[in-house]
Amino acid sequence: MANQAVGFAYHPSSPSVPDWLNKGDNAWQMTASTLVALQSMPGLVILYGSIVKKKWAVNSAFMALYAFAAVLICWVLLCYRMAFGDELLPFWGKGAPALGQKYLLGRANVPASTHRHKDGSVETGRNEPFYPMATLVYFQFTFAAITMILLAGSVLGRMNIKAWMAFVPLWLIFSYTVGAFSLWGGGFLYQWGVIDYSGGYVIHVSSGIAGLTAAYWVGPRVRGDRERFSPNNVLLMLAGAGLLWMGWSGFNGGAPYAANTSAPIAILNTNICAATSLLVWTILDVIYFEKPSVIGAIQGMMTGLVCITPGAGLVQSWAAIVMGILAGSIPWFTMMILHKKSTLLQKVDDTLGVFHTHAVAGLLGGALTGLFAEPVLCDLLLPVKGSRGAFYGGTGGMQFLKQLVGALFVIVWNLLSTSIILLLIRLVIPLRMPDNQLMIGDDAVHGEEAYALWGDGEKYDPAKHGSLFTEQIRPNQHHANNGAIGVTVQL
Fold it and tell me: Could you say which DSSP state residue 159 is in?
């Protein structure tokens, strides 16, 4: 019976097991999707809630939580097919719902991804993974969600929550989908051969540039918050960072759309680069500041993960170490040295330094992919055959140039689209919280606080609960010279 049950489970004629379905690919892709989703919810929710000042813990976590939910609904109603559907413009797909069972149960495909030679003949057929469209829709949602949440890191501690609620769907529609279609969905950069293996440009450069732009238009935090913004819970911050790091295996390991030989290469390279970058950042902190920093180690981890993302499955592991060394040093320099000397950067209050950890690291990773992309690994995945980095000669020099042009497009589009969206929202909703809310924080904005001082969310009231400290005086010891007075804490 057991053998019959196993045989039936893999029987191709079952209504839920069509001929094109590969159960291994489907299982891995859903697992990868879950890993990426965990990076945001609860990963970045925890990280944001703990890395900020105590008075902003609830608001910061809530911004991430709201974005995760709002992006999913917008994604299935309209945005998935704008990013991965039929071509409307060279940089945009035709928006439509992804909700009907006829669409979701069919075999996954990216209709605009067919790549042709200059003479019009097909070089690489359209991308058609061996699992249902529902799997691909959810996998790509998790990338859209984390991009939005990363962007939020630039405006924590002062953006009006109502303005944020309006900004999320608008930015998803008019900014994220453009980058995704252009580089992944079969748009003009995809067709030209720009490499963005798993989102170095689509996710990290876009969130870093859009975050810096949003920080400019929203305005700075209050002076006290900007001068001192210590994390309220370092250990919890490490827990959120750990979820982010471990979830990146799904982030880069799921990019090939299959449980193939490229996926484990990408996962190994991801972890190698992150570890190298963390160590380099920490060493620089010790050299320059004479002590290692937990926040610095997390920043180094982040820049390593971001830097490897554009080429995780396309570079050799020795190159991942080189990329990690540069990811741990160049963004460190821009954040710790250049930022403090730049008048322009000092004027923009980027709360978590998203510009440095994502835009700088993502641009660095894209450029290094243009140098180190290995020809054999490229032919396993890329639609343009013969692609290679400049390090391997041939057309590699042109590939490096393509990487720079692709980054420039993402930068310019995000500067313009983010600015226009925020200026339109500002006509209706103030982008920055009023000063009275900025001074108080979570209690004024949400009526909630992260850490209660007494009981079940109730603030401590000496008149109601009694004195916290009571003097215990022994009989006949009313004077100091008769004995010491003990102080007992009433727990």
Answer: B
Tokens of 71: 């992006």
How many angstroms separate the CA atoms of 203 and 218, rounded?
21
User: CB–CB of 123/384 below 8 Å?
Assistant: yes
Provide the 3-class DSSP secondary structure of residue 122: strand
Residue 376 CB: number of other CB atoms within 10 A? 10
In total, the chain counts a number of residues equal to 491
Neighbours of 198 (CB within 10 A): 26
Residue 325: exposure state from Cβ atoms within 10 A (0-12, 13-18, ≥19): middle
CA 146 from chain centre, in angstroms, equals 4
Per-residue pLDDT of the chain (491 residues; tens, 9 = 90+): 445 555 555 665 577 888 899 999 999 999 999 999 999 999 999 999 999 999 999 999 999 999 999 999 999 999 999 999 999 999 999 999 999 999 999 999 999 999 988 888 888 989 999 999 999 999 999 999 999 999 999 999 999 999 999 999 999 999 999 999 999 999 999 999 999 999 999 999 999 999 999 999 999 999 999 888 899 999 999 999 999 999 999 999 999 999 999 999 999 999 999 999 999 999 999 999 999 999 999 999 999 999 999 999 999 999 999 999 999 999 999 999 999 888 888 899 999 999 999 999 999 999 999 999 999 999 999 999 999 999 998 888 999 999 999 999 999 999 999 999 999 999 999 999 999 999 999 989 998 888 865 555 555 555 554 544 444 444 454 444 444 433 433 33
* Nearest one of 66, 73, 70, 154 to 446, comparing CA atoms: 66
Pull the structure tokens for residue 261: 């030989």
CA torsion, ordered 56, 59, 62, 68, to nearest 10 deg? -90
pTM: 0.89
First vs last Cα of the chain: how many Å apart?
62
Distances (CA, A) of 271 to 10, 38, 325: 34, 17, 13
Q: What is the DSSP secondary-structure string of 160-199?
A: -HHHHHHHHHHHIIIIIHHHHHHHTSS-HHHHHT---SSS
